[in-house]
Specification:
There is one protein chain. This protein is mainly beta. The chain has a 5-stranded mixed β-barrel. A hairpin with a 5-residue loop joins β1 (25-29) and β2. The protein has one domain. The chain has one helix at 10-20, and strands spanning 25-29, 35-36, 51-55, 59-68, 80-87, 92-98, 110-117, 123-129. The chain contains 1 helix and 8 strands.
Length: 133
């Protein structure tokens, strides 16, 4: 059984290409300097159109999360953690927290991006818990 795939299109292709090479890419506005995720044709802050792609740090903090104890299909082995991650650059993205027990995840926990194969041709960002001193 396959996992849900991102919808192909020119707006997401640079993001998906970055994931293939292990790089989390965000759009950055040349007019106001704001980063944004999800990809759009205009800046969500200033409505400018001078958007470019840049590599993100991949670091963030868990803003909120839930533990899914019954997967939506056989492709999603439960339990798994779905979280809102506040990235260092500013945007918040939804992803999975992996490689830990669900009980180890907490709001405010520092995380680092990793990438998981979603299919033979698509990898997507997931996050692992990070210890920060």
């Amino acid at each position: 059984m396959n996992k849900i795939q991102p919808t192909p299109g020119t707006l997401v292709e640079t993001f998906i290409a970055g994931c293939r090479v292990g790089e989390l890419r965000l759009q950055c506005c040349g007019s106001c300097g704001a980063y944004q995720f999800y990809p759009r044709i205009i800046c969500a802050d200033c409505h400018g159109r001078d958007l470019s792609w840049t590599a993100a740090s991949g670091r963030g903090r868990v803003r909120s999360f839930t533990v899914v104890r019954r997967g939506i299909s056989a492709a999603y082995e439960a339990p798994y953690v779905v979280a809102l991650v506040a990235l260092e650059e500013g945007p918040t993205m939804m992803s999975h927290i992996v490689a830990c027990a669900p009980e180890d995840v907490a709001v405010g926990a520092p995380v680092q991006v990793d990438f998981a194969a979603w299919s033979d041709s698509v990898s997507l960002p997931v996050f692992t818990l990070e210890s920060r001193d």
